[in-house]
Specification:
Elements: E1 5-21, H1 26-36, E2 44-50, E3 53-61, H2 65-72, H3 76-79, E4 83-96, H4 99-102, H5 106-116, E5 121-126, E6 130-136, H6 140-149
């Protein structure tokens, strides 16, 4: 299971828009505001919470969290969100490698190894050649250690 490269971005923030209207165009508005501010989103999840509402979470560089939150406040009425929660103590870990697209068990191995080490994953994203995890910054070193040793990443 060789050929993997681990990268991480330590100083990240997770912003969550709570109770956003679940209708077409809302996500486009949210991410347009961020784009206008030059803020690149690393990970993104949406979670339906019922009654036509949902939470939208995304990871951005920690130093841009305040500007992002301030910019998004202009959308409160249109999107209906109740609050913006910010966690400035997170990091993104990404495993890259051609083997991810050829090995259907790779994600399972990484997830089991991290779970076995007590790492709580706040977000997960996978594409053909990479899998990314959002973890608490306090767990970053352990996550890197686990992915390197227990999951067989050189």
């Amino acid at each position: 299971m060789g050929g993997y490269d681990i990268r991480h971005t330590q100083l990240m923030a997770k912003l969550t828009l709570k109770s956003v209207h679940d209708k077409p165009g809302i996500a486009a508005e949210v991410f347009s505001v961020l784009a206008e501010q030059g803020i690149a989103v690393d990970l993104l999840t949406t979670i339906p919470t019922g009654r036509g509402k949902g939470d939208v979470s995304f990871a951005i560089p920690q130093g841009q969290a305040d500007a992002a939150a301030a910019g998004l406040e202009s959308l409160r009425k249109e999107t209906g969100f109740k609050s913006i929660d910010a966690d400035r103590g997170v990091s993104v870990v990404t495993v890259h490698g051609e083997g991810l697209s050829r090995d259907p068990a790779a994600a399972s191995r990484f997830l089991r190894a991290l779970a076995g080490g007590g790492i709580n994953l706040q977000m997960i994203s996978q594409s053909l050649n990479c899998i990314s995890f959002l973890v608490s910054r306090s767990q970053l070193d352990r996550a890197l250690e686990i992915l390197t040793a227990q999951a067989g990443v050189p």
